[in-house]
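WARN no homologs supplied; continuing
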Amino acid sequence: MIRVMLVALVLSGLMLGSQAKAEVMKGSQLLADCHDGDNRSARDSPYKGGTCSGYITAVADALVPAGVYCVPDQVKAGQVLDIVKLYIEHHPERQYMTAPKLIVEALAEKFPCN
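OK structure emitted
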């Protein structure tokens, strides 16, 4: 029951209009945090890296029960991070969108449920 409520909460945040977008991280900011986290000489590198991996992992894990995408069991967390980062990098025209929406798009494209 708690998972269902969590999924409903996350999905409602994805569907809301501009009010929620002001509070949710944008794709461009998530990508910047990921790049800073990958750069050991960047200021706040451990913090930015943690923000990147924690954010992507939390959204990805929260929506698995909803059946939005189907990540195979053998896929590692690092692979999920790489897929999302590459998706955001390869779609600069979408980086203004919310990070959760882009995470879902990346994973649904790579791991569709058939």
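The chain has one domain: 2-110.
OK
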